[in-house]
Amino acid sequence: MEKWKRYTLPVILGIALIGTSIWGVYQYNQSRDYHTYLDLQFQRQFYDLIGHVENAQVDLAKAMVSGSTNDMAKFLNETVFQSYMAQEKLTQLPLNHANIRQVEKFLSQMGDYCTAMVNKTLEGQLLDEEEMETLTELHSYANLLSQHLIELQQQIVADGVNFGDLRREANRDLDAVNDRMTDMNLINIEERMQDYPELIYDGPFSEHMKDRKPRLEGEEIQRDEAIGVLQEAFSDQNISNIEAVGGIQNTAFTGYYLRAQKEGNGDGEEVAAGITKQGGHILWYINPRVVGDSQLDENEAIDIAEQFLQTLGYDDMVSTYTIAYEGQILINFAYMQDDVIVYPDLIKVKVALDNGDILGLETEGYLMNHHEREIAEPEISEDEAREKLTSAAEVENVRLAMIPTEGQDEVLCYEFTVQLGEDRYLIYIHAETGHQRQILLMVEQEDGTLVI
User: Fold this and answer.
1) How much is the average pLDDT of 167-176?
2) Tens of pLDDT, residues 282-291
3) Is 109 helix (H, G, I), strand (E, B) or coil?
4) How far apart are CA 332 and CA 171, in angstroms?
5) Cβ neighbours for 360, distance < 8 A, ≥ 6 positions apart
6) Which of 35, 82, 362, 416 could form a disulfide with 56 if both were Cys (CB 3.0 to 4.6 A apart)?
7) What is d(CA 286, CA 291) in angstroms, rounded to the nearest whole number?
8) Which residue, 447, 426, 446, 445, is CA-closest to 437?
9) Is 385 in contact with 317 (CB distance < 8 Å)?
10) What is the distance between the alpha carbons of residues 411 and 404, in angstroms, rounded to a whole number?
11) Separation in Å, CA 400 to CA 71, 204, 340, 393
12) Residue pair 385/401 in contact by the 8 Å Cβ criterion
């Protein structure tokens, strides 16, 4: 009995120690998970902040270039919304608000000023020269803020800064947070704001086809016929072992999902395609192979893509916009009818710049919308349409284009490519009414043109 009592206490203490250790590990894991969650939330707030500032900058630029008071009011009103959303995201970050006061003030005053300008334009009044200069200055500082926030984001990623750590430091010692903020150049952004007084990689009108009914003709095909369609289209690219593995999904089309082997591709680099049941058209095609060093330039790649489309029976297609990245180039083609660009009839082709392989194809826009249209003659002349533009814009090019509307209709417009300051825009003037229908900002990059 005595011996049993002698070991009882150590056993109890040992069990308690083990229990405490388990509890401690559990609490540590809970705390770590919480701080990871907290950091992810703060990162999302920061990325949202950058997005809202960039959107405010673009909307403000569109307002400045707009020749219509209604459109100017629309873009200014969107600038107000983006400014206030950016301000909200900024205040939710774990930062000392004394050090971001100037940025908050700028975002608030940009929103307030644009609100005043919206009210003026809604009354039918044009902004005077001084007010336009103020908008130009606000746009300049919004651009500056956007650039520095992106640099700050890159520095945070490079330095491994954890927003959760900043929050914990703030709770203990705000001076420590200030030091970290200084190191991250946030204070430098503030100093630059002291004097302050919008990869579409698809080009314009590429998202218009949602919820439409396809304009397809032809008999329905079977699985074996779908395999034949793919074999014929890529007869010169050594595709073999084609099999139908299911149906295509997440689209208005019904069809077959095919997989195949391609000579030269590595393990796990199967090509895939979607073939429509009705008519047997290639809806999409993907070759995921690794691309080598570029050997072709943009014009050579466009020629390859044009020839490929012609072999598929797509004639009268013209390239509109391109974007190159990681040794490949994505080319957008639109249908041309009677010298009018028909943007709804869109096809995208991706070409490998190392050897000219077709890496991707998407025909959904074309198959959804294509038909021969009765295009009426414009009711207004090019010169009359030109008069609708702001006098500050320098016209570089003009052509007729058919563009989609939000009501799933199409309108004939004059497409003006204009320069305002250092930025280029596409402005669409209705060829019948003379009303301004759309403004798109063209962001020129080394690898292509981004249209917003």
Assistant:
1) 43
2) 999 988 888 8
3) helix
4) 52
5) 284, 285, 286, 287, 330, 348, 349, 350
6) 82
7) 13
8) 426
9) no
10) 6
11) 21, 14, 5, 19
12) no
The pair of structure tokens assigned to 8 is: 């009882």
pLDDT tens for 19-28 read: 565 555 555 5
Residue with tokens 């570089």: 396
pTM > 0.70: yes or no:
no
Q: Percent of the chain beyond pLDDT 90?
A: 34
Residues in the chain: 452
CATH code reported for the domain at 382-451: 3.10.450
Q: Which residues pair with 123 in a beta bridge?
A: none
Which contiguous run of DSSP H or E holds residue 241? strand 239-247
DSSP string over 404-416:
E-TTS-EEEEEEE
Q: What is the pLDDT of residues 192-210, one digit of tens each?
A: 444 554 222 244 555 544 4
162-168 — which CB contacts under 8 Å span 24+ positions? Answer: 162/35, 162/39, 163/38, 163/39, 163/42, 163/43, 163/46, 163/93, 163/94, 164/35, 164/36, 164/38, 164/39, 164/42, 165/39, 166/42, 166/94, 166/95, 167/38, 167/42, 167/94, 168/35
Q: What is the mean pLDDT of the chain?
A: 79
Q: Enumerate the domain spans of the chain.
A: 9-192, 223-369, 382-451
